[in-house]
Design a protein that fits this description.
Shape of chain B: globular
Distance between the termini of chain A: 82 Å
Shape of chain A: elongated
Largest sheet of chain B: none
Mean pLDDT of chain A: 78
Largest interface: A-B, 40 and 51 residues
Order of helices and strands of chain A: HHHHHHEEE
Structural class of chain A: mainly alpha
Mean pLDDT of chain B: 86
Radius of gyration of chain A: 37 Å
Helix content of chain B: over 70%
Order of helices and strands of chain B: HHHHHHHHHH
Number of strands of chain B: 0
Helix content of chain A: 55-70%
Radius of gyration of chain B: 20 Å
Low-confidence stretches of chain B: none
Strand order of the largest sheet of chain A: 1-2-3
Strand content of chain A: 5-15%
Structural class of chain B: mainly alpha
Oligomer: heterodimer
Chain lengths: 169, 200
């Protein structure tokens, strides 16, 4: 049988019959069609035959690796993931035990980042940056090894920084 | 005084219960007992022994982590097989993305090669050595596109219904029915060629 698009629907219906994927009422309707149509009967027989043959010959495969070798990789992974999950559970549990840490940790992180930014900036660059942040203008940094230009627009809430390595040393 | 447990003498139910209590040795016995079947399912789907071994080992790790979810509604092996099938489907999806296999190619696989469905009489016990039949079917399965092969495996070997296959393969029931039809038709052609050689 060579089902065209129009025949495909009927073929799939016959297949659903073979696979017992249709209701009892539908089964009666398909059986009525089969009584009148020898091609439908042939297709049902072929579909059933190939299905039975495939099931009878399900391929088997055996691992060539030894029991110990195969298991060792599984055991390693199980132990590794158990340690990871215990570690993460340990820290999470500690944070949960101290409820105030939930908001204090992010706040502390933000403060540390802010302080580091201020401390690590060269003094001249810092003043230029502060000036640029407060004014709507372009500034040139006084860093020795790089040229930095910062532009901040308060109106549009945007800062643009150009950083360029100096070519003269 | 602790008593030594004779793991090989325990049934799967007992080993699963012990594993749920954290007994890794009980779980190792389950692995040893079913590893070939789990590996065989992975191999039938991905057709690569190394990948199949990795996926089957990954499935065992997942099974250990989710053991508490196993309620015994099906056999342990059925549950394990479902896990490895899901991993294989994920693997095949990832492969699919990198392979750029197009829908047109799939259409060609579906209708281009096999134009007829030859009649197939299933009397393997009478006509053919079972091992030879398995080998022939394996060779034929290897010639299908992975979409067709997967549908066939899930339906014929795992006994999943159309709807369940559609859910797992993330497509419509109609697509599954169509893929199954074309997969069977191609298998019929491939196995009828075997028959001409005198095996069927």
């Amino acid at each position: 049988m060579n089902p065209d698009r129009s025949d495909l629907k009927q073929a799939l219906g016959l297949q659903a019959y073979v696979d017992r994927e249709i209701s009892a009422r539908e089964r009666c309707r398909v059986e009525a069609v089969m009584l009148k149509d020898p091609k439908a009967r042939d297709l049902v027989r072929s579909l059933g035959g190939i299905s039975e043959l495939i099931r009878a010959g399900e391929p088997e495969a055996c691992l060539t690796e030894s029991r110990e070798f195969y298991w060792s990789a599984i055991e390693r992974q199980i132990r590794r993931e158990a340690v990871v999950s215990q570690d993460s559970r340990g820290f999470a549990g500690w944070v949960r035990g101290h409820g105030w840490l939930r908001w204090a940790l992010p706040a502390l992180g933000a403060v540390v980042v802010g302080v580091l930014l201020l401390v690590l900036q060269p003094s001249g660059w810092r003043s230029a940056t502060v000036a640029a942040l407060s004014l709507n203008r372009e500034v040139e940094s006084v860093s020795e090894d790089t040229s930095t230009f910062t532009f901040r627009s308060v109106h549009s809430g945007m800062s643009v920084v150009w950083v360029q390595v100096r070519q003269d040393f | 005084m602790s008593q030594r447990i004779d793991y090989p003498s325990l049934e799967d139910v007992g080993l699963v219960a012990a594993s749920k209590r954290g007994d890794l040795m009980a779980f190792e016995e389950l692995v040893a007992r079913h590893r070939d079947k789990v590996f065989a399912r992975a191999l039938s789907m991905v057709r690569n022994p190394d990948e199949a071994m990795d996926l089957s080992q990954e499935a065992w790790v997942k099974a250990w982590q989710r053991l508490v979810q196993f309620q015994g509604d099906s056999s342990f092996l059925t549950w394990m097989t479902r896990i490895v099938i899901n991993l294989c489907l994920d693997y095949l999806r990832r492969q699919q993305r990198t392979r750029s296999e197009s829908l047109e190619q799939l259409e060609e696989d579906s209708g281009g090669v096999e134009r007829q469905m030859p009649p197939v009489e299933a009397r393997p016990a009478e006509n053919l050595d079972r091992q030879e039949l398995r080998k022939r079917i394996d060779v034929a399965l290897a010639q299908l596109s992975h979409e067709h092969r997967t549908v066939l495996i899930l339906h014929e070997f795992e006994g999943l219904e159309y709807k369940e296959i559609a859910k797992r393969m993330e497509c419509s029931t109609g697509t599954i029915m169509s893929r199954l039809f074309y997969a069977r038709r191609k298998m019929a052609v491939l196995l009828s060629e075997v028959r001409k050689e005198g095996y069927l």
